[in-house]
Amino acid sequence: MKLDDSIAIVTGAASGIGLATAQGLAQAGATVVLGDIADDKGEQAAAAIRAAGQRADYLRCDVTDPASVAAFRDAVLARHGRVDIVANVAGWGKIQPFLENDDAFIARVIELNFMGTVRVVRAFLPGMIERKHGKIVNVSSDAGRVGSTGETVYSGAKGGVIAFTKGLAREMARYNITANCVCPGPTDTPLLQAVPEKHREAFLRAIPMRRFAKPSDIADAVAFFASSRSDYVTGQVLSVSGGLSMVG
Fold first, then answer.
1. Region 170-186: what's the mean pLDDT?
2. If 20 and its partner were Cys, which of 181, 184, 193, 215 is the partner (CB 3.0–4.6 Å)?
């Protein structure tokens, strides 16, 4: 898949799925702007991509802060003039029984996993509408499709991302802008490593392919939705989970 001459932004790009997505889009030829709040890791990631002969830079972006998202948008447009691909990957979760969730925890989960996606899309959409072209790829989770024990609010927030993506796809189709959603299953990232071992073992036993996803597995799905090969695909939800969840 070739993304030559495309300008892409990736949130949550300093590590995990976001980093793999930034690397994958850059390898396909895109100029990639990595957005994150982990400045040192983000700068290092962008430098590593450039060292490999691809085009990337890092700009701070806190998706929970409207002012930060606006500043990120303004800086990206000042440097590159436009954005063709928006990949929303920033997110966070923690295994915890629902009745132990306090208001601050619930607010953080919703802000990071749902409202952050809404804000970033809203920031970059006007330019896409003006050019009548754009690719929006939101990373949700299979938790948003089928639910996940100990991640009830997270499941709700990620389910919201799925519904938001579908509504967006219907509104934006007239402008030749596609919006699609990638739903990872358990993926070998720092977030998964923070999950108690008994939960990781249970996940592994339930996955038909008997391994966790690699971040690059998810990045490949994002790259498909970001490419011209998906020009007639919009409002779709793709599970990348080794068969953990299937739709009949």
1. 95
2. 215
User: Which residues, listed in sequence order, are joined to residue 11 by a DSSP beta bridge?
Assistant: 35
Structure confidence at residue 147 (pLDDT): 82
Q: Which of 58, 154, 175, 232 is catalytic?
A: 154
Q: How confident is the model at residue 111 (pLDDT cuts 50, 70, 90)?
A: very high
Estimate to the nearest angstrom the gap between the alpha carbon of 238 and the chain centroid: 13
Both tokens of 179, joined, read 């919006």
Q: Is the pLDDT of residue 235 over 50?
A: yes
Cβ(153)–Cβ(110) below 8 Å: yes
Between CA 103 and CA 109 the distance in angstroms is 10
- Domains of the chain (ranges, CATH numbers): 7-185+214-240 (3.40.50.720)
Residues 177 and 82: their CA atoms lie apart, in Å, by 14
In whole angstroms, how far apart are CA 136 and each of 107, 176, 189, 190, 238?
25, 11, 23, 25, 14
End-to-end CA distance of the chain: 29
**d(Cα 96, Cα 80) in Å, to the nearest integer?**
41
Q: In the annotation, is 154 catalytic?
A: yes
